[in-house]
Predict the structure.
Amino acid sequence: MQLEGKTAIVTGGARRLGRAVALALAERGANLVVHYGHSAAAAEQVVAEARAHGVEAIAAQADFHRPLEAPRVVEAALDHFGRLDVLVNSAAIFEAGSVLDTDEANWDRHFAVNLKAPFFLSQSFARHLPPDGTGKIINITDWRALRPGTDHVAYTLTKAALVTLTQVLAQALAPRVTVNAVALGAILPPPGADQAYLERLARSVPLRRHGSPDDVVAAVLFLLEGSDYVTGTTVLVDGGAHLWGPPSNG
Ligand SMILES: NC(=O)c1ccc[n+]([C@@H]2O[C@H](COP(=O)([O-])OP(=O)(O)OC[C@H]3O[C@@H](n4cnc5c(N)ncnc54)[C@H](OP(=O)(O)O)[C@@H]3O)[C@@H](O)[C@H]2O)c1
C-alpha cells in the first residue's frame, strides 16, 4: 500500500511508540488521526508535527476503559477525512499481576483497553469500508503473547488474544483488508521504570540489547508498505527474546 494520501488512525499515538509510528506515517504522506486517552497536549503536539510534514492531522479522544466508545475514533476519521485506510492498535496498559494476586479489576482493565478496544475499532473499520475499499490493520502485541511467563498475567492473556484476534480478523476481512501483528520485546522502559531496568532486561535476550522505536517503525512500515501479500502473521521485534523465554525460565 502506498501511504501517501491515505488516512491512518494510531491509537495511543500521542506518546512513546504510538507517537513514533504516527509521525512515521505522516512522514510517508498519510493523513493522521492521533488517538489519545489522557494525553491531550501531547496529542496536539503530534498533530502539529504531522502537519509540518505536509499532511492533515487531527486528535481524537476516547477512553478505552469504555471500549464501546472506541469506534467514535473511526467516526472522527471518516467525518474529517471521508476515508480510512489504516488502523494501528497501539494503545495498551501494562500492569503487574501474578496468578495469585490478579483481581477482577486488573483483569477487566486489561481486557477493555488491550483487547476489546482493538476488536471494536477493527469491527468499526470493517463496517465502514466502502464496497471497493481496501485497508490494513496492525495490532501491537508483545513477545510474551507467544512465550508466556508468570508475571503480568492479565496483560499477557490480552496480548495472546490479540495475536489470535489478528488471525481471526485476517480471515474474516480478507481479501480486502490485511491484518497483522507486531510483537515487541524491550524497546522503551515501561511507565514507572528507568533506563537501567531496560538495560537489565536487554541482557537476557539473544541480541543482548534493547530495540528502538525505529525498529518498531520499520516493522510497521514493512507490513503497510513493504508487502500486500502478508496477512495473519505476527512479526517479532524482540531481539530473539521469544527463543529464550522469560528471564525466570532460565
Ligand atoms: N514499550 C515497550 O518496550 C513495549 C514492549 C512490548 C510491547 N509493547 C506494546 O507496544 C505498544 C506501545 O507501547 P508504549 O510503551 O508506547 O505504550 P504506553 O506508553 O504504555 O501506552 C501507550 C498509550 O496507551 C494509551 N492508553 C492507555 N490506557 C488507555 C485508555 N484507558 N484509553 C485510551 N488510551 C489509553 C495511552 O494514551 P494517553 O497517554 O493518551 O492516555 C498511552 O499513551 C503497546 O501496545 C504495548 O503493549 C511495548
